[in-house]
Amino acid sequence: MSSPARPPTRYDTGERSTSRRDDDDRSHRGRYESKRRESERGGGEQRWYNDRDRDRDRDRERHRDREREREPRREARRDYDRPSTRPRRSASPASRPRSRSRSRSRHRSRSKSGSAPSENKAKPNFKPSGLLAAATNTVKLSDGTSTVLKYNEPPEARKPTLGWRLYVFKGKDQVDLLHINRQSAYLIGRDRTVADILIEHPSCSKQHAVIQHRQVQVKDEFGVPKAMIKPFVIDLESTNHTHVNDETIPTTRFYELRAGDVIKFGLSDREYVLLHDEAV
What we know:
- By secondary structure, the protein is an alpha+beta fold.
- It has helices spanning 13-42, 45-81, 95-114, 131-136; strands spanning 138-140, 146-148, 165-170, 173-179, 185-189, 197-198, 209-219, 225-235, 242-244, 247-248, 255-256, 262-265, 270-275.
- Strand 1 (138-140) and strand 2 (146-148) form a beta hairpin.
- Helix 1 (13-42) packs antiparallel against helix 2 (45-81).
């Protein structure tokens, strides 16, 4: 006597899936058979084929709809599985702001490196241009013309207390006497409009030199400093220079004068002897 068939357990997945497929096939086959019979009864075999094709189209549409519904889920799953887009968890909360700052710094560095090189622009120049000094030193004449002075008096300019004079000699003869104690500075040159002491020799410049009285600090015999006003001469970059005691003095620098010094301007033969009241 044969043993009765064992009922399927919960672990018989293979038999269970096979029986289910068989049931689906039988139901599908039965459905088409019933439709075929109905079509044969009502209108022939052609109508049955049309109904079958219509059912297949419906099944395909349902299958496509299901695939469309599952596609977003599959995309989300693929994006999640990618290492670059998967969110990473930091070991500690303190490290999260650091990672953000690093990403920002990298983004800034990339943007700087990727940007076009900036053009070399000229830096601002704050050095004196001389325009203001030229405007303040401009002397306007009655005929409408103007002359720019080449010299400005320094802050230590003072009117002398001694009676300084210039004795003008041509050869052995004295031709003129000039008092240079009535103002703090005297401009010497060929330009009649601005010169305080006129020199007509063609070798001299229009603004040749300046005799300037300055207040300086000197020490007496006991080493005590005291203020004293002394005369100086400065050459205004003349063509043929200024000479003191037959020596050419440097240009644009004050050269101290003493009583008895002999001054010559350019190639002129005239000699200007400097003296004061106490030295005579």
